[in-house]
Specification:
Length: about 230
């Protein structure tokens, strides 16, 4: 959001009056005087007028969860447990998900109150890759590698999937790396090659891998470095 808009909102002023305050050097953002009304601020910026806080800097939350199967990737659900139920933090009501997993899938899920960060994971260009471990009913065929790399046309959405890297690890087990997240995408792709997914586990988002010591159902805050890794292609 632009600084002039935030000031007019917090101080109940019109935009012109907000600009006057900014022009008169009466506004500080994170301790520094700002004279440009278009300066970008958000809920994590500390904004002061004549040294008096108009907005306290919010607490940024960047959380990873090892989602067990059975939990819904949502913040509320009337009947089923959600990934938010796994988190114990007084500010958890502010959280939203940076990407979902199906109910019976497991692995890395990210939650945050930072809309810019989640957008840079879900909507950025170049796209952020996500890696999954997959187990299937039938043997995975060598020809599937080429089929996944070429893409599949989904007529319900009228799209062709972006190239997917498929590494066969065992007869019925593979690692998939993809850069988009269409509805049930992995299950639908295996269906196209006459196979069926029995287990799906997300190992990483960008360059952020699910740590081996984070057991299913556990969560923790990301480090500053990990916040950057999640958005790195
Ligand atoms: N593709 C699927 O089919 N399910 C998931 O949970 C994630 C990707």
């Amino acid at each position: 959001m632009k600084l002039d808009r935030l000031i007019s909102r917090h101080a109940s002023l019109g935009r012109t009056a907000a600009h006057r305050l900014i022009g008169a050097r009466r506004i500080k953002v994170d301790g520094a005087t700002v004279t440009d009304g278009h300066h970008q601020v958000d809920r994590f910026s500390c904004i002061e007028l004549d040294g008096v806080p108009l907005q306290h800097a919010g607490r940024p939350l960047h959380i990873m969860v090892n989602k067990p199967p059975g939990y819904v990737s949502a913040t509320v659900d009337e009947a089923l447990p959600t990934v938010l139920d796994l988190i114990d933090d007084p500010d958890k009501g502010q959280l939203h998900l940076a990407g979902r997993l199906d109910r019976n899938s497991s692995g890395l899920v990210l939650l945050t109150n930072d809309g810019r960060w989640s957008k840079s994971i879900t909507e950025s260009t170049p796209k952020v890759p996500k890696a999954y471990l997959v187990e299937t009913v039938d043997p995975i065929q060598p020809g599937d590698v080429e089929a996944f790399a070429s893409g599949f046309y989904f007529h319900t959405e009228d799209i062709t999937t972006l190239p997917v890297k498929l590494e066969i690890l065992a007869e019925r087990c593979a690692r998939l790396t993809l850069e988009e997240g269409r509805y049930h995408q992995i299950k639908r792709m295996f269906h196209r090659v006459n196979n069926r997914v029995t287990r799906l586990h997300r190992e990483s988002i960008g360059r952020l891998a699910l740590p081996p010591d984070l057991a299913p159902g556990q969560w923790r805050f990301l480090t500053i470095e990990e916040v950057g890794l999640a958005t790195s292609p």
